[in-house]
Amino acid sequence: MDYEREKFYFITVFQKLPPDDRHFDIGANRCWGFYKDKEIAAKALHENWTDMTEYLYNYAVLEEYYEGLCGCTGNRQFFKYDVKKKGFFEIDEPNMLKHIQAFALG
Q: What's the pTM?
C-alpha cells in the first residue's frame, strides 16, 4: 500500500458479558459510531453522549480500525456503565472476550 491509512475509533455497546469462553452471548448490541480522535471517543463514553445506555446497554468497547477492508487492529478498550457517574468507564478486558475481534464491523 503506497499511502498511510487513517485510523478510526468505533464505539459499540452491548448488554451483557458472556458466561464463559464457550458461549458467546453479549445480548443486544449496537455500534453508535466512530471518531478520528481516540480521546474524543473515550470522552463520549465517559459522558454517555446521546444516552448510549438506553437503559439496556451495560458495557462498551472502543476499537481501533484502519480505513479500508478488514481494518480492525486489535487495539481496544472495554468499558462498563457506572450508574453513579452516569457514564462508561474503563475496565480490564474480560477473559471471555479475548478471542473475539471486530465488534463494530464484524
A: 0.92
